[in-house]
From TrEMBL:
ADP binds at T10, R14, T273, G317, G417, N421. Keywords: ATP-binding, Glycerol metabolism, Kinase, Nucleotide-binding, Transferase. Glycerol binds at R80, E81, Y131, D251, Q252. Belongs to the FGGY kinase family. Pathway: Polyol metabolism; glycerol degradation via glycerol kinase pathway; sn-glycerol 3-phosphate from glycerol: step 1/1. It comes from the Archaea. Sn-glycerol 3-phosphate binds at T10, R80, E81, Y131, D251. This is Glycerol kinase. Its EC number is 2.7.1.30. It comes from Salarchaeum japonicum. It catalyses: glycerol + ATP = sn-glycerol 3-phosphate + ADP + H(+). Residues 2-258 form the Carbohydrate kinase FGGY N-terminal domain. One of its GO terms (biological process) is glycerol catabolic process.
Amino acid sequence: MYVGAIDQGTTGTRFLVFDRDASVVAGAYETHEQHYPEPAWVEHDPGELWANTQSVVESALADAGIAPADLAAIGVTNQRETTVLWDAETGDPVHDAIVWQDRRTTERIEGLSDDLSAYVQETTGLEPDAYFSASKLEWLLENADPIEPTRSATRSVRERAESGEVLFGTIDSWLIYKLTGEHVTDVTNASRTMLYDIHDCAWDDRLLAEFDVPRACLPDVRPSSDDEYYGYTDPGGFLGAQVPVAGALGDQQAALFGQACFDPGDAKNTYGTGSFFLLNTGETPVESTHGLLTTIGFQRRGEPVQYALEGSIFATGAAIEWLNDVSLVEDAGETESLARAVDGTDGVYVVPAFTGLGAPHWDPRARGTIVGLTRGTRREHVVRATLEAIAYQTRDVAEAMLADSDVSLSTLRVDGGAVKNDFLCQLIADVLDTDIDRPVVDETTALGAAYAAGLAADYWRDLDALRENRRTDRAFTPRDGDWDAKYDRWQDAVERSRDWATESP
């Protein structure tokens, strides 16, 4: 028997199958199209995401010769905050999903009163921002095309949502609904909507009223690892088997779980399209006064919620992709050799604020900036400066976490595509003055979802069994250097990027 994990991310969908040692025994991946209907708007086709999910599940199982009935459970992890509406009867999406990167509702968030903004932070643990689901959902309810249930009548999407005929969900909810027919989400994804009270673990009436969201369209909120199961796959569906769907976590919380950060003080940073730095704070939420988010880390059924502090950095892997977009590198792997080819950046700093700055700055109008260019600047300097920016942004968050929690990191566990670059890992260790631990199994996001489902299905006995599974691929120890001075100069570069996009997004 095995456990499967659907990992639906910003750029693609992956399905991985794990054995009891947390080794990957099967996998498949497909990318999907990014839609940009307006500047600063980003959308995905939910139908394409579902089609790709079916495709990667079928491909991975077939390639490995694994029968669907050999899956003890399936877990789901997902790009967070991305918002979907669909018809409850047909299961068809009402509109393309609005992606977490989308900035179309920036002015709506900027118009919130100081009192309401403070209430958002106090109740949800989040900094008011267009990043989260609430204003995206409001926009969809007001602007999605009407649904025509009969030839003689047209009812608005909002009217249908008020009667529960149109349903809202983040991507986990969408996939679980398509897999099982059940309308559920887990506590971690609910905590990213800006509509959920993370202290009482309930949808918040004041925020639902502010964003005019009908309760009837909301999913049931469940533990991240649920031995009562979210539902079962349809034996008459694409899998041809009844498999329990038993766990779900937003992608960054899934990576926290997959990295076995089960105890207060454990921390991980995932370097994907963006970077997401999470510190487990235990059963007590720590309110940030330094620009971080307080979020739910995970919950097992029958146990208290575990909280985390989070620093969300919007562009790390995306910064490396930009280097490719502008032909400074031919592929991501080239960045390491180019960065090693020079001793430093020659005074160049890159601030990759392509969609604004996240934690701890929270400036949606910041934009990508390069400073310090001279006639002697070469592409190697710009490439190295881009990698250094990833490390500096990580330190921004680490220093905010220290200020909020008084926890000084001894080790940071890292994962994600960017940390396959040894130069970058060493750079992060140097800039943070902290040991960096990279695991053997680098698909920690999918592994976390598998762990959540497998624990619920008794595939793994307890958290200690998961701790025993974790193995280090390589550790990086900090070296001496003048990083404090360079980091101070980085702050100057950040200031020059801020409040640049004065036009409406």
